[in-house]
Amino acid sequence: MGVVRVIVILFRVVLIPRAALAAENLALRQQLAVLQVSAKRPRLRKRDRIFWVWLSRFWADWRSCLVIVRPETVVRWHRTGFRLYWRWKSQKHRPGRPKIAAEIRQLIRRMAQENPTWGAPRIQSELALLGHDVAESTVAKYMNRSRKPPSQTWRTFLENHSPDIVAIDFFFVATVSFRLLYCFLVLRQDRRRVVHFNVTPYPSARWTAQQVVEAFPFDEAPRFLIRDHDGIYGQDFRDRIKHMGIEEIAIAYRSPWQSPYVERLIGSIRRECLDHVIVFNEAHLIRILTAYFRYYHQSRTHLSLDRNAPIPREVEPPSRGRIIAISQVGGLQHRYTRAA
Predict the structure, then answer these.
(1) Bigger pLDDT: 80 or 52?
(2) Both 76 and 175 in a single domain?
(3) Which of residues 31 and 316 earns the better pLDDT score?
(4) What is the mean pLDDT of residues 21-40?
(5) Burial class (CB in 10 A: 0-12, 13-18, 19+), 168
(6) Which has the higher per-residue pLDDT, 142 or 89?
(7) Packed helices 205-215 and 235-243: angle between N→C axes, nearest 10 degrees
(8) Does residue 70 sit in the same domain as residue 189?
(9) How many domains does the chain have?
């Protein structure tokens, strides 16, 4: 029943005489009885239900004129409205525990992902040291669930073993008289440090083995040594390496990508240094490479080392002064620093 119709009925109650009003009620009831028998069940709108709930509170005899629905239905509407009212009223105060900040939730998931062996108590302790007071049950709620047993990532596995791995390789350089010089490199994988290098015009297995001995003189030998299948690594070399307790790992034939770090180093030496100079002799090449490796270790940044040098450089804030350039490798490269 619409609101306009209700207003019209109220006006009629006030203005129409009682006899005419009784006759009209009788006619309306007769028509409703016919509709109730012949028509389907009517669909009431929300405002119709609100009207009947309101009328039941202010008119004691409201059941006498109820035809469309049963009185129990109106009572059920009232109870439903009561529940909706209290639900709306309770939402204002937001009961229960306060929500955990999105930053803390992301931090919990990050710690759980980066440390698969950590449980909720360990993550809770780390959060407490970072100034976040979070319950252990909350940490357990937001941790990443995994059906498989905790396992480290391949990156973590390789980083844990990289300090015990070195790679060796040769590359040649043509002098001004077209004479070939062979440079031998020993590279540690963890910080990309060249621990030893030397130059010779006549490489041999015994000379190569002696270079490895000089690279690790005081029981600093690594656990693994990566090399290719060059014929220079003969029996003398293998015997010396075995005596030092180093296990050789030979990469597949014609697969330089299996020893990427030393191959990348040789490419950087050529692109950044040797492609821009003419080598006179063996001593000249050693001086050039010594200057380059000084720059390589102390100044040159590497993406895989968090954009820092093998010997980490300190971050210099602008308050330290203006920026100056320091020439290195004979002016082929420069290092930028701040001078007070």
Answers:
(1) 80
(2) no
(3) 316
(4) 60
(5) buried
(6) 142
(7) 20
(8) no
(9) 3
Are residues 195 and 81 located together in one domain of the fold? Answer: no
Percent pLDDT > 90 in the chain is: 40
Which of 44, 63, 91 is where one domain is finished?
A: 91
3-class state of residue 237 by DSSP = helix
* Residue among 166, 165, 193 at smallest CA distance from 304: 193
Domain that holds residue 225: 160-312
Average pLDDT over residues 133-145: 86
For 318, which DSSP code?
Answer: G
State which amino acid sits at residue 35. Answer: L
Is 127:110 a contact under the CB 8 Å cutoff?
A: no
- Residues 5-26 pLDDT 10s: 666 666 655 555 666 656 666 6
The answer as to whether 333 is a domain residue is no
Tell the residue number behind the tokens 């905790």, with chain if given. Answer: 150
Tell me how far CA of residue 135 lies from CA of 112, 113, 115, in angstroms: 16, 19, 19
Task: Note whether 123 and 164 are same-domain residues.
Answer: no
Structure tokens, 225: 């040594």
End-of-domain residue from the set 91, 115, 131 = 91
